[in-house]
């Protein structure tokens, strides 16, 4: 089939992953044969080699620009293509391979993590134990409905007090960014407290968040450390949740790409004595209550395959919110950040709580994406703004 010399004889080079596609018919169609010839011609032997042998395709796969393969295959596949089309089967099989790395725009399928291979990984995992710090948690497993008076509401209150009135285990997802105590100008919040006063208050609110979160629910906190004062707020918050026996599920790096930020200090200029590090990102710390698995109906999943594939990589490149001046709020996160969080970690119909709702970004995005919401803020002005933004969605 291919004039570039390559012989199977039961063995293949270690430089290839070998995959098989059964041919479930007597003969390949003309367009399948042409398609396979074109693939072999278009890609070098270093990338892949396809042979037909004993009613199957044998694919020797090394590295590949999968999008180019897709484009090529779709030149040979019409809309009424039959289910046993081998070109489509080949594409699906390659797209479903989960183990690869990227190099020079190609997926590399073999020999990419030889140095890091751990033998008997499963057995070692069982021996060590997973999330040991949360194994003896005793959260109640029975979940409750959120009372109607809290559903789809923006409430002006101190979150600690309001949340204390709510039943336990009634919120699917908490998504929030607390004030970071950087000294920003808020309407009704003093943002430069003594650190122990700040953390005491924050922990009391987060404690209430844990209480109202359902068994199997998630708490996701967007937080930026105060690098200039060497205060790792994201570590403090994560430690707090770990002590409370939540499971640390993930850390997402929100890359804001704001290289032109105004802070121009270098520390010890051109000297190792005390250089000042600069950062263009914030963190999202993702915690689960009781179990990693979140219950939900299949028909309420709204994330696409493409979104899922892109967003499970823990670095999200999203520009900062540009409308803060218009909205007169000093520290909003962008809608795209909330959209990804909700689609990746919650189902349609879930109820999403933001106890520091500010300008209302979380409820606006929840509303857009068929989730219910509860937003709380200490400022009347911000609550008004949040309600207005939500109402504008309905116009
Ligand atoms: C970082 S901002 C949240 C911004 C929001 N993510 C957005 O996109 O607009 C924090 C908010 O917490 C509010 N806040 C501070 N202390 C609070 C408390 N004890 N209870 C409720 N809200 C509070 C502030 O008024 C501020 O709007």
From TrEMBL:
Keyword DNA-binding annotated: yes
Annotated EC: 2.1.1.-
Alphabetic keyword roster: DNA-binding, Methyltransferase, Restriction system, S-adenosyl-L-methionine, Transferase
A family per Pfam: N6_N4_Mtase
Gene Ontology biological process terms, A to Z: DNA restriction-modification system; methylation
Keyword DNA-binding on entry: yes
Top-level enzyme category: transferase
Recorded GO CC terms: cytoplasm
Catalytic activity: a 2'-deoxycytidine in DNA + S-adenosyl-L-methionine = an N(4)-methyl-2'-deoxycytidine in DNA + S-adenosyl-L-homocysteine + H(+)
DNA methylase N-4/N-6 domain span: 171-387
Recorded GO MF terms: DNA binding; N-methyltransferase activity; site-specific DNA-methyltransferase (adenine-specific) activity; site-specific DNA-methyltransferase (cytosine-N4-specific) activity
Protein name: Methyltransferase
Organism: Natranaerobius thermophilus (strain ATCC BAA-1301 / DSM 18059 / JW/NM-WN-LF)
């Amino acid at each position: 089939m291919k004039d570039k010399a390559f012989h199977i004889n039961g063995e293949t080079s270690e430089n290839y992953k070998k995959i098989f596609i059964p041919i479930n018919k007597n003969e390949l169609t003309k367009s399948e044969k042409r398609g396979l010839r074109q693939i072999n011609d278009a890609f070098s032997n270093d990338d892949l080699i396809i042979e037909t042998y004993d009613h199957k395709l044998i694919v020797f796969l090394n590295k590949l620009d999968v999008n180019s393969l897709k484009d090529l295959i779709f030149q040979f596949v019409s809309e009424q293509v039959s289910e046993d089309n081998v070109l489509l089967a080949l594409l699906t099989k390659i797209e479903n391979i989960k183990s690869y790395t990227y190099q020079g725009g190609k997926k590399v399928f073999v020999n990419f993590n030889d140095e890091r291979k751990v033998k008997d990984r499963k057995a070692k995992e069982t021996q060590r134990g997973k999330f040991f710090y949360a194994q003896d948690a005793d959260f109640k497993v029975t979940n409750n409905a959120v009372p109607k008076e809290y559903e789809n509401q923006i409430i002006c209150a101190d979150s600690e007090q309001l949340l204390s009135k709510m039943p336990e285990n009634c919120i699917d997802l908490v998504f929030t960014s607390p004030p970071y105590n950087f000294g920003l100008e808020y309407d009704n919040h003093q943002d430069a407290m003594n650190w122990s006063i700040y953390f005491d208050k924050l922990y009391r609110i987060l404690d209430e968040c844990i209480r109202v979160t359902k068994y199997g629910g998630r708490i996701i906190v967007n937080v930026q450390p105060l690098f200039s004062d060497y205060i790792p707020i994201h570590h403090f918050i994560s430690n707090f949740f770990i002590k409370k026996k939540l499971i640390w599920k993930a850390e997402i790096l929100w890359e804001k790409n704001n290289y032109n930020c105004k802070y121009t200090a270098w520390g010890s200029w051109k000297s190792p004595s005390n250089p000042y590090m600069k950062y263009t990102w914030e963190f999202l710390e993702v915690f689960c209550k009781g179990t990693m698995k979140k219950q939900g109906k299949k028909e309420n999943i709204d994330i696409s395959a493409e979104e899922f594939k892109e967003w499970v990589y823990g670095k999200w490149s999203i520009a900062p919110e540009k409308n803060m001046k218009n909205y007169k709020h000093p520290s909003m996160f962008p809608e795209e950040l909330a959209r990804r969080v909700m689609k990746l970690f919650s189902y349609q119909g879930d109820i999403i709580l933001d106890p520091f709702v500010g300008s209302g970004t979380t409820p606006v995005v929840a509303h857009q994406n068929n989730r219910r919401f509860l937003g709380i803020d200490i400022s009347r002005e911000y609550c008004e703004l949040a309600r207005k933004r939500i109402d504008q969605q309905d116009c």
